[in-house]
Amino acid sequence: MASLLEIENLSVRFPAGGAVVQAVDGVSYSVDEGETVAVVGESGCGKSVHALAMTGLVPRPPAIIGGAVRFAGRDLATLEESELRRIRGPGIGMVFQEPMTSLNPLMTVGRQLTEHMRTHLGLSRRAARDRAVELLGLVGIGEPAARLDQYPHHFSGGMRQRVMIAIALACRPRLIIADEPTTALDVTIQAQILKLMKELTREMGVALVIITHNLGLVARYADRVNVMYAGRIVEHGRAADIFADPRHPYTRGLLASVPRLDRPRTERLVPIDGQPPDLSRLDGGCSYRPRCGFVTEACARSRPALEPAGAAHAAACFHPGKMPAAA
Predict the structure, then answer these.
(1) pLDDT digits over 240-260, tens only?
(2) 3-state secondary structure of 217
(3) What are the coiled-coil residue ranges (predicted)?
(4) Which of 27, 139, 182, 240 could form a disulfide with 162 if both were Cys (CB 3.0 to 4.6 A apart)?
(5) SS3 of 304, please?
(6) How far apart are the first and last CA of the chain?
(7) Cβ(9)–Cβ(67) under 8 Å?
(8) Residue 8: which of 64, 76, 61 has the closest Cα?
(9) How confident is the model over 76-133, as pLDDT tens digits?
């Protein structure tokens, strides 16, 4: 049985003066019905660009996009903009990073919710408003009927993000892409938002792609994880396997830099040395090697492919077995 979403060799390049920025480089993965898949990595690794590209939200030109993105059997890369609009909303919902810049400050929350449903579902004004009240209640906003007539600035950051989730759910999509949905929120609200999204996707059978750098939330809510570095997936597998036994040095570095409650309070965090690479100056070797403590001559000669590193687990590293076992 085919997956709901299948991404195959997705690439995104941007001309920049006399150079080309390879923002996404050969990304491939799948998402099944009702599954939660996380895409993690440092800022600038291509997480957000790949999500925008697969939904047709990266302008072409200037971007040069290749590969296939199949949603429910249809290749989105071959569709016209008018066809993509009919898929966004009823098929794929999107929760963007910063709700204050995604919500229109001049329109009431109710209008932004109902307009979405009237356009895609053909609901009457009254039916759309009733559904909007239901959705705001579903995402945990009190007195939803009264809040419909308020503007985004009347809501806190956490409440605005809940409104974004309600908009994403409004047309009963089969897939939601959440791009850093908790970046601007404090830790307590972050946990609430991710718990809410996980519960809603479980109840409604919606698949979820979470794009984030917060590994603590990923460990709790994701079924599978894709680790991105320099535009490529360098490790993927079940969340439990990756956290218990990371096989790529970059993944180990990310995990080592996260505070843990089961460690002594005096223990120092271990940062990853160096800086992410310039995506316009990548060579033919492993892009992580300037920061890697396990580098060999082979790492400079060619780029490692994503190879099996266990059951349903793969890593793009020439020597994953040389790394010590995870603590």
Answers:
(1) 999 999 999 999 999 888 777
(2) helix
(3) none
(4) 139
(5) coil
(6) 37
(7) yes
(8) 76
(9) 988 888 899 889 888 999 988 777 788 999 999 999 999 989 988 899 999 999 999 9
* Gap between the Cα atoms of 290 and 274, Å rounded: 7
What whole-number distance in Å separates Cα of residue 82 and Cα of residue 19?
Answer: 32
| Structure tokens given for 97 | 């990073």
119: amino acid identity, one letter: T
Angle at alpha carbon of residue 314, lines to 21 and 286, rounded to 5°? 40
H or E, element range at 225: strand 224-229
SS3 track for 10-39: EEEEEEECCEEEEEEEEEEEEECCCCEEEE
Question: Which value, to the nearest 10 degrees, does the dihedral of the CA atoms of residues 280, 285, 287, 289 take?
Answer: -140
Q: In Å, how far are 112, 128, 130, 131, 175 from 125, measured between CA atoms?
A: 12, 5, 9, 10, 26
